[in-house]
Specification:
This protein is α+β, with helices and mostly antiparallel strands. Strands 10, 11, 12, 13, 14, 15 and 18 form a seven-stranded mixed sheet that branches. The protein has a four-stranded parallel sheet with strand order 2-1-26-27, with helices on one face. Strands 6-5-9-19 form a four-stranded antiparallel sheet. The chain starts with 6 loop residues before the first helix and ends with a strand. The chain binds one RNA strand through α7, β11, β15, α11 and β31.
RNA sequence: GCCUGGGUGGCGGAACAGGUAGACGCAAGGGACUUAAAAUCCCUCGGAGCUUAGCUCUGUACGAGUUCGAUUCUCGUCCCAGGCACCA
């Protein structure tokens, strides 16, 4: 065995060997228990970044561990290859989205292979391939048939100069992120998936996901946002029209003094028609449509509204209520109409104060609360007042009584409302999966016949000026014949699908990636699915996971699969962070642009730099580490080791170059230890006897070996706490350094063989290259095929115990005793301890607590 | 505002079921080896104090509480991070 650890040589050697012998290829084997381990597939953005490295290292350790435990492990990798960055890059670099994407995939595949991940590369998929998205189109047709996919008019963020739809995150303070011009709301016909049909089911099953982090479950629940309340009908004065509102506070209906409709509400213009308010209302609607109503913009606008000129009648109090249209009423929630109760809702209170509207108190917590002196709304509980027959009732009871009353008198009914809206999947983009629909002047919307799938995205088209999709202008794509009437003037749908659609089912495709007769081979899916462990960034905690859960239900209800939840266990890893370096003249600096040491300075201007707080790595802050550099300098094993050692996976990881050095040093230590002992242990048999066969001075080591196996196994199995697992191995290695090769004996050699084997086996999921190298030096073949070591429970038993003695809960002394001692004897030893006697100093003992074989607490 | 997490040495982090706080690593300091340096190996390392082989006090954001005993459980406060947010 070489004396020096040379990761560059070892790693490329083993990577080639694994690839040539298809070490990580896996196939369906019903005789073996399966384990499906999946990491969220990456968007091929160029190069892998440190977040990928962390995510995929965590997954790889679990995959390798489960394989060594005897599972048939499915561990695939692929590319979430459609999406806007490809278009942006194409514009910036004057290349083509397809070329850019495929180049990136090649680079990133090579980098992932350099990391030594145990993927079955034969299952690689790229969602931009027609073989993949044809099945997405096929399912779209099925969803269209059963009404799950539908088309409707909907408001979108629209940028006029760019002639394009913007996602909410592309709207910055009401302006287009690209051209900086105002964004307006525009009505467009778009395709939707009816995810709201499953809102309740998705919500209820949140509680049946014990393997998911509580935080993610909570986020999903919030997103779905179910609230129970009532619909109430308000008649419009001098009209046959009715306004329906949704409220969760029907107990306050007697306090409703005005009505607010969303500006887009269909009744707004109708109500103001012909009144003196008409043009004011129209101006208001026009102005509000220019406002950015995405989450970011919303708080910047003041609450405002305009009287429509019409009135409605409160069905319970009989009061006349002015009808307003207001910017805070949202068309997308409830019914788009709000009964405003200023006394008990802060927003309504502010609005009423601004426009001088009446405030009526209907829930009173105590005698002091009075409309005349109220400075804010009272949203809490209390006794009903000003509420007719309901006066004197506790408002929680009135909530039910009034709901009953509404139902009995047909003025409304109990109902639930969800925050979740149907999933709009149309994108006016080029680089996405075409929606397989045809528009015919005569027949309307006609689905593409199944046998004509896939509708292939032309990969050679160029983006138009401003990054617009060329699809509508490409006659050879857009012009087609109507499958129904044969008309030659039919046009294809030129919108493409949201890329979340591809990622909602890819995990199933991995089960049979080359299957040509359907989305997937049922036999394979039945064997592998659901995913046993899913691992990815917490940034996908809501949308990707919710869409995947929804899609899985759609597939199940079509009879294509038999499970409801796609991911049994979920791990969301934390962000990778690093300190920022900021120069007063040059702004953020890359770490290497500043000098080293205590007084760090900008290399260009020699100003002192400020070391900022530790933040998520991002290109804009320049606090990034390129995995490529790490691989060059230390190799994959060190990089993997550090990612796991620095913190537990769900927490954020603070990058620290010296920490990486430490990990590298540890692997060197392991290497030197093995190299030193190799000549002697190579031909020795690992010690296999009982502890009693060993000389007393070797028993400690024997125990340490088994304790380490136990610790590492439970840390990986139960908690994914690789950092403590690695510490345990470090402790064992430290202990082994206490033995000198020069003082070896046959007994030590056998035990050392066991020790070294254990260290290598336990490290192998984390650092597979060095492990395979040393493993082969020991005369073995592939460590991936080896079994995970088993600890001897009897070796964990202690024959001597340390018992702690406390006085009034404070540590005062400790002693060692044989493990089979009883509590009474422990108490006696504690009381006769010299130091304890000194502290007690003859004071009366009130109580003695003995914790079995662990502790004595004497209360004085 | 609401919902999640989190706050432990100079730093990353341990302490898994209330029972020895600070495992393991980094940084720092000291020593050995060396002509020298690197590498390596060994020792020290929360704070304060003292009559310094050791001992005492103090210490897990802050304030209460439960308990023989609290980093761990309960309540309140502050701060940090993430998510949601005119959601009626």
């Amino acid at each position: 065995m070489e004396e020096r650890y040379t990761p560059a040589e070892i790693e490329s050697k083993w990577q080639k060997l694994w690839e040539d012998s298809k070490t990580y290829k896996v196939s369906d084997d019903p005789k073996k228990e399966k384990f499906y381990l999946l990491e969220m597939f990456p968007y091929p953005s160029g190069k892998i970044h440190i977040g990928h490295v962390r995510n995929y290292t965590i997954g790889d350790v679990v995959a390798r561990y489960k394989h060594m435990k005897g599972f048939n492990v499915l561990h695939p990798m692929g590319w979430d290859a459609f999406g806007m960055p490809a278009e942006n890059a194409a514009i910036a670099n004057r290349t083509h989205p397809a070329i850019w994407t495929y180049n990136n995939i090649d680079t990133m595949r090579r980098q992932l292979k350099q990391m030594g991940f145990s993927y079955d590369w034969d299952r690689e998929i790229a969602t931009c391939r027609p073989e993949y998205y044809r099945w997405e189109q096929w399912l779209f047709l099925k969803m269209y048939e059963n009404g799950m996919a539908y088309r409707k008019e909907s408001y979108v963020n629209w940028c006029d100069p760019c002639q394009t739809v913007l996602a909410n995150e592309q709207v910055e303070a009401g302006m287009c992120w690209r051209c900086g011009k105002p964004v307006r709301q525009k009505k467009l016909a778009q395709w939707f998936f009816r995810i709201t049909d499953y809102a309740d089911d998705l919500l209820v099953h949140c509680d049946l996901l014990p393997g998911w982090p509580d935080m993610v479950v909570a986020m999903q629940k919030n997103w779905i946002g179910k609230s129970a309340g009532a619909e109430i009908h308000f008649n419009v004065e001098n009209s046959s029209e009715q306004i329906v509102v949704f409220t969760t506070r029907q107990d306050t209906v007697f306090g409703a003094t005005f009505m607010c409709l969303a500006p887009e509400h269909p009744m707004v213009q109708k109500l103001s028609l012909g009144t003196s308010q008409e043009h004011l209302v129209n101006d208001f609607i026009e102005r509000i449509s220019m406002q950015d109503r995405s989450s970011k913009g919303i708080e910047t606008y003041e609450k405002e509204g305009v009287f429509t000129g019409a009135w409605c009648i409160n069905p319970l109090s009989g009061t006349r209520m002015p009808i307003y249209t207001a910017n805070f009423a949202l068309m997308g929630y409830g019914t788009g109409a709000v009964m405003s109760v200023p006394a008990h809702d802060q927003r309504d209170f502010d609005f009423a104060k601004k426009y001088g509207l009446e405030i009526v108190l209907v829930v009173k917590p105590n005698a002091d609360l009075d409309v005349a002196t109220m400075s804010e709304a009272y949203p809490g509980d209390g006794i009903m007042v000003n509420s007719g027959n309901f006066n004197g009732m506790q408002n929680e009871l009135a909530l039910e009584s009034i709901a009953d009353y509404l139902e009995v008198h047909r003025l409304g009914k109990r109902t639930v409302s969800f925050r979740l809206r149907d999933w709009g999947i149309s994108r006016q983009r080029y680089w996405g999966a075409p929606i397989p629909m045809i528009h015919c002047d005569a027949c309307g919307i006609v689905p593409v016949p199944e046998k004509e799938l896939p509708v292939v995205l032309p990969e050679d088209a160029d983006l138009l000026v401003g990054g617009l999709s060329p699809l509508p202008t490409l006659d050879y794509f857009a012009r087609t014949t109507c499958p129904k009437c044969g008309s030659h003037s039919a046009r294809r749908e030129t919108d493409t699908m949201d890329t979340f659609v591809e990622s909602s089912w890819y995990f199933q495709r991995y089960c049979s990636p080359d299957y040509h007769d359907g989305m997937f081979d049922h036999k394979s899916v039945d064997y592998w699915m659901p995913v046993d462990q899913y691992i990815g960034g917490v940034e996908h905690a809501i949308l990707h996971l919710l869409y995947s859960r929804y899609y899985t239900r759609v597939l199940r209800d079509m009879g294509l699969i038999s499970y409801k939840e796609p991911f049994t266990r979920l791990l969301t890893q934390g962000m990778v962070c690093k300190e920022t370096v900021h120069c007063p003249t040059h702004g953020y600096l890359f770490p290497e642009e500043a000098t080293e040491g205590k007084d760090r300075r900008c290399k260009r201007c020699h100003h002192s730099v400020t070391i900022g707080r530790v933040e998520k790595m991002s290109k804009s802050k320049k606090n990034v580490v390129d995995p490529h550099i790490l691989l060059e300098k230390y190799g994959a094993d060190t990089t993997r080791l550090f990612c796991l050692f620095a913190s537990p996976p769900e927490r954020s990881l603070e990058w620290n170059e010296q920490g990486v050095e430490g990990s590298f040093r540890f692997l060197n230590r392991v290497w030197r230890l093995c190299a030193a002992w190799m000549p002697f242990v190579r031909s020795a048999a690992a010690f296999d006897g009982a502890m009693d066969d060993l000389a007393p001075e070797l028993r400690g080591l024997y125990k340490k070996i088994h304790q380490t196996i136990f610790k590492v196994t439970s840390d990986i199995e139960d908690r994914f706490h690789f950092n403590t697992a690695i510490s345990a191995v470090m402790e064992l290695v430290n202990m082994l350094y206490g033995f000198s090769v020069d003082e070896r004996s046959p007994a030590i050699t056998g035990l050392f063989r066991l020790a070294i084997e254990s260290v290598i086996l336990l490290l192998s999921p984390v650092t597979p290259h060095i492990a395979d190298e040393i493993w082969s030096e020991l005369g073995n073949t592939s460590i991936y095929a080896a079994s995970w070591p088993i600890y001897r429970p009897e070796a964990l038993l202690k024959d001597m115990l340390t018992v702690v003695v406390q006085i009034n809960g404070k540590l005062r002394s400790k002693f060692s005793v044989a493990a089979d001692i009883d509590d009474a004897a422990i108490e006696q030893i504690a009381l006769s301890d010299e130091r304890i006697k000194k502290v007690i100093d003859g004071k009366p003992i009130k109580k003695i607590v003995v914790v079995q074989k662990k502790l004595v607490n004497i209360v004085i």
